[in-house]
Protein 1
Amino acid sequence: MLKTETPSTRHAELDLYPTVQLVAALVDDQFWAVEAVRLASPHITAAITAALPRIAAGGRLLYVGAGTSGRLGVLDSVELHPTFSWPPERAVAILAGGAGAMFAAVEGAEDDVDQGAAELLALLPQPNDVVFLLAASGATPYVLGALRAARGAGALTVGIANNAGAPVAMQADCGIVLDTGTEVISGSTRLKAGTAQKITLNTISSALMVGLHKTYGNLMVDLKPTNAKLILRAVKLTMHATGAEEAQARSVLEQCQFHVKVAIVALLKKITTDQAQALLAGAGGSVRSALAA
């Protein structure tokens, strides 16, 4: 039996726990998710190293999964646009059972290996694309079908699973096993297995965005300010990076459609926003390189 499906020997009387003990058991077990990711760090590093040049060359981030794993892939893909201005068409997720499975389980959809292959191929994968194959068990047929199709197309495959020896990790170009073990509630991989997958996806996509100069130091300087909160964040980030007063920061941001990168370079180099934009373009989007030019 897979570890993720094996009942925990530590919590055989879970239903008898008083609430305070139940909460402690559920919360404390999540620490193992962090440890599992930490132990997998060399494999995560290898995946990022392999993926970065492909994405820098124009590749896409493609996510494939079923159930909780698939929904985590959707979540990672959709959050890249507001956070880093990453084009939505370059972060695409497919989920067993279709878009509706994001909100309601579609039973049996994950068992169709041919459907997984077909839906991945419908995205027309290319060699510079990076495909994340997510499956807690590591053997979900839908995901394995997509994996084989992605490899056949020459895309980089990154298999993420929670069981040692998982086919999705063993057959991918880059395999990441997050050995989270048994769950407090047996087989409920929405718990720490899912937490470990979320941490891993956060780490990979964030590291890729840093590598693509989407940050300046640890500042989120390529965000898409689509609401009042994000506009205020853009102003605060610009003030923090340049020392400018709020009125000056806001004025310069208004001249460049609230593109924080451009405002920072314009303010620190005392140039126009058009000149700052040109410097950034010549520096591959790197604020540091633009400032040094």
Protein 2
Amino acid sequence: MNANTSRQSPAEWDESDELLSRTARDLPTGRHQFHKERLMAQIHDTQQQDSRTATPAKARRFQLPRPAFALPAMVAAAAGAVVLASVLGPDGGGVRDGGVATGPALTTEIGTASTSGLPQLLDQISLAAADTSHPDVKPGQYVYIESKTADTFIKTVNDKSSLASHELHKRQIWESADGVEGWLIDPAVNDGPEGETLTLPDEQGNTPTAHLGAPSYDYLTKLPTDPDALLAKIYKETKGQGNTPDQQAFSTIGDLLGESYPPAELYSALFEAAAKIPGVVVVDDAVDAAGRHGVAVARLDETSGQREEWIFDKKSHVFLGDRTVQVRKNGGTDGLITPGTVVYTSAIMNRAIVDDMKQTPSQTG
């Protein structure tokens, strides 16, 4: 498999059917909230010592607040519409926060949104998701997902707040089919390069039950694949979450597209369900964290003024990644997060089934 074909949707695999080809998003789903709270505490403690505080501009539901990273200048050039300043490395005087360098806020041109062609696009995406082999995760195997992520956060120094970001970096996670065993390597989260265990129970002795906001692969295999029944379950189980029921339903589906591995029929049904959510639009041009242009299925959160965008290749319709862009002024952030700010961006670089914890696709036979 060449470098290009190693970046595809969870439905596209190589000849051995071992690897998911070219797509992929954040923390293995069974432990999002636990690690979110833990990370926020670590950020607070560390930055208090440095007389700094950092508050992520947006903490995504059920997932870690994506640590903000500025994309390197070469990637920004390739992205075209993405306007990102390069950051200083460890030898260039740049501040380092959580193991990655900090730099200016991430910005982009705001793509044009329309409902025109939405049903046709989602049909094409659903067909592309269903039209390939999609191996099951067998007992003893692990879902491996490698991504690149970046986001913007609010930094406060001596009571003065400003926007900042962290450099783009690689994130790797492993999760067992039942969601009980896992491993995370992410320099914005881990204390060392070797990463940390996500194996349950957590440090409080809890073994959470899988649910929509924290699903294991085994849990996903039990979800309905009829789009109406699936969407009804999403609305029911996420009631009271998010700013509105419709936005929460859209975000829940988006989370399932990223750092999880929906079985084949469910993966296709998710797009059919998304088509039934009011307010969903098409964005003509969007760029993922790796600089790949695509078309986006998106929805504006009227409360926050942020638009969540799922980015797909314009020809193959495979999922490339996602981003959240501020498209309307939000007074709740004291005007710091202005329209055009990239609150979060991600690119799925590899998704695979491997036989051992911390094994990568290149190490498989």
Protein 3
Amino acid sequence: MTDKGAGYMQQALLDQLRKITEEERKILDGEAEVDKDLYTSGRDFTVDSRKMLKEGRLIAVRTHTRFVYFPAHRHNFVEVLYVCEGSLTNIIDGKKVVVNKGELLFLNQFTKHEILKAGQNDIAINFMVLPEFFDVAYSMTGNDNMLADFLVNVLRQDEERGEYLHFKVAEVLQIQNLLENIIYSLVNGEENRERINQTTMGLIFMYLVESVQYVEMRLPNQYENMISMTTLDYIEQKYRTATLTELCTRLHLPMHVLSKMIKKSTGFNFKELLQRKRLNKAVELMCETDLPISDIIAAVGYENNSYFHRVFKEHYHMTPRVFRVKNSEKEQVRL
């Protein structure tokens, strides 16, 4: 790919995508509505993968039909909408979602949406993708990546829950270049490149996982719950050395974004959650072992003894030594 500003597609490919299609020509000649027979054989407007993808193919691409309102419909595949020029306005479960140049909208199977009329300079690409196409992307992002798990699992479900992922990644040059590669391949009918295209989508996913601060999704609570569960699990496993910086790196989220999400979903900030875990572990060791207090302090991750004593006293209203004696009297300490 040539070196260019983010969101700017090669002119030759863009000119190719701008061409008026046969369907658009009919609309310009007076056809008032979308010809549903091009998309579905059923009564309800569910766009059918059998009409849109060649047999045996996992992905196909077409330019979005301009000059006409696209009525409410579903599709029995994952649709990925990418805007090359201009913008495209979707209505998803009554919510207006405007996809601007360089942005991606992932629409899950059977997500119902409608699209307002696009003008001549609103150039968008529809990727029509069967869920198994994402298997390669999933394997490339790694098995221990909670965000990749979440994103791929969202796209694998086929329930009518109106799910979408809107990635505002116009400034991420790597994603723009990879999308251009895959569009060029599909538009020019390079039939033998499906594995390459799957790998390219895998690379796109890897960059998307690193760009989750730019994502807006239909089920924000589900996403926030996943983040809070990941945070609590991380503290549970790594309480001795856990840091917010390390967790931000793992989740590919800026510190201010992650801090806000943790506070919103748990009611505590990261430092408070970590401190609660360390104190609980310290109390457990006091009550179940005869380790010296200084060793317990080190074992739970505190480097400063006086700081631990101050925090402990604030929380339990007594010193660690008094706490241990009181609990020893209740025969809760095993010596």
